[in-house]
Amino acid sequence: MHRVNSASLLIIGGVVAVDPLGLWPFGPLRWLVVSTLGVGVVGICLRRASTRLDGRTLALWLLLLVCLTLSAVTNGDVWIALVGTDTRHFGLATWLLCWGLFCAGQQLRGHETQLLRAGTVAALAVGLWCAWEALFGPPIALGINSGRLTGPFGSAALVGGAMCLLLPLAVASALDRRTSRGWRVAAAIAVTSGVAAAIGSGARAAWVGLVVAAVIVAWKVAAARRPLTIVGSGLVVVMLVCLPLLGSVFERSHGSSSRLDEWRVATRVIANHPLLGVGPEGYRIVVSEGVDADYERAYPRDNVLPDRAHSSLLDVALAGGLFAAAAYAGLLVVIGRRVVGRLAHASPAQVALSASFFAYFSAQLLLFPVFELDPITWLLAGVVVAGAVPARARTALTVHLKTAAAGVVALALMIVGVLDVAANRLAHDAVNASAVGDDADARDLAERATRLRPDSISYRMIATQVMLAADTVSATDLSLSHAASALDWSRRDPVAVDLWASSLLQRASQTGDEADGRAALTAWQELVERDPNRTRWQLQLGRAAALVGEVDVARDAWERAAALGSAQAEELVEELP
């Protein structure tokens, strides 16, 4: 019973964990819950001396993890590749967690009903949050201007992904006549609000995933065809009637071709690193290899930098190479074939879990792996595999994973996670203090955040930005120190190197010293050489060159920026002598 209870807590907690007092309200607390509970679930479910696992999927998982590990340790950004960035959290450690949860899920056969209930509670939480957001505005203010529902994730895409994962479970709970009437009513509310959330998110990938799952279930499960046809027809009618109200849901800052553009950039990078990829979380560093002038003009990389390919297969190929992508695709194909083969004879709970698998991973082919949902999805995928493969057909393995060892890891993750939540709140207060001009308080709060998590490059970057905003020589010197500390952990991180060079340029502007100016110029020249098609870096190079009287260098940089679509650069060129 402890096994299914811990798994249920992971499903619910991974969805509802939000910290409104943090700078990133949808990140650190959720990662604390997912990582700590996830390791706990693995430890509890795999504590038996002999554990039965599906041999074919185990082999594919091991191939995937070997490729990811080799890529992580050979691509020059080892720490981030292992633990992930502070916002995405999808380094090798998270892949290992997903594998562990997949193995753990195979030990939960027979507990499908309890897992369905946990998924229903999670769906209800997301649906009610989105209903409040639609009626009264987001409970947590976001700096975005969009009519799409973002839910307890701060992301419309993740709301769609969550609905792919959770809606089939809620539907099965609502149709289960063996449960109490009150529970079925709650499940029906979860389904209704969840469908509204899926539509209101405008997540087209999620819509595709849900349609794929519905088609597969209708194809293999005769009893489901009529209800699915009725529900699907009703949804089409509702969407047509409400179309005038859904205009903002379909709006995009860029057209549908933007996804194709992202894939083109990613495939260029993969072509340069076919064997081992660029390491988990490494795409943010080498994306410039695939960016050309046309892409930069269409999607200027000023505040938003590409760090994922928007396709799970491409993202895995980037993280671990083509063999890793083949292993990942093999996992999905093997699981999918086995599930489809037994779907006609599966229990309603197994049908719901299978539909969840098909919906989520079909949608993810147009999205990317996320720490918020992938660990939960792989846990449920393990349950699906256990239901599709008889126990006698699974391989008996001796697992030397002691519950105490898993407990130690979970405790360590909890301590780090709590410190991260505290640092996140301090960073929030620091940014607010800086915004109102309280530079001394902002500096103190930002430095306290870095002391709590000295390994975090994100808090170093926040401290750097706070110091730069103070705009004094002493504060700029501190910004250089924090930027250098961030680079110690990730030498080529595009944000960290930008902040380092920006600090040098600001110090040169403050002191007027020739040596400071030359140091700034050299830094920006190195960055432009690394990424010549980034408009911001060309602008900054021009400023550094103008500061030391290198007029020709400044003119070349600003003309290049103007060619990349910068109106500001055109004005700067005109001001040159």
Question: Can you describe this structure?
Answer:
The protein has 577 residues and is an all-alpha fold. It folds into three domains: 2-250 and 260-294 and 308-401, no CATH class; 422-505, Alpha Horseshoe (Serine Threonine Protein Phosphatase 5, Tetratricopeptide repeat), CATH 1.25.40; 512-577, Tetratricopeptide repeat domain (Serine Threonine Protein Phosphatase 5, Tetratricopeptide repeat, Alpha Horseshoe), CATH 1.25.40.10. Helix content is 72%, strand content 1%. The chain is built from 27 helices and two strands. It has helices at 2-16, 28-45, 55-74, 78-83, 92-105, 112-136, 156-175, 181-201, 204-220, 225-241, 247-250, 257-272, 283-286, 293-298, 312-320, 322-342, 348-364, 374-388, 403-435, 439-452, 457-470, 473-489, 494-511, 514-530, 535-547, 551-563, 567-575, and strands at residues 50-53, 395-398. It has a two-stranded antiparallel sheet. It is elongated, with a radius of gyration of 25 Å. It starts with a helix and ends with a helix. The mean pLDDT is 89.
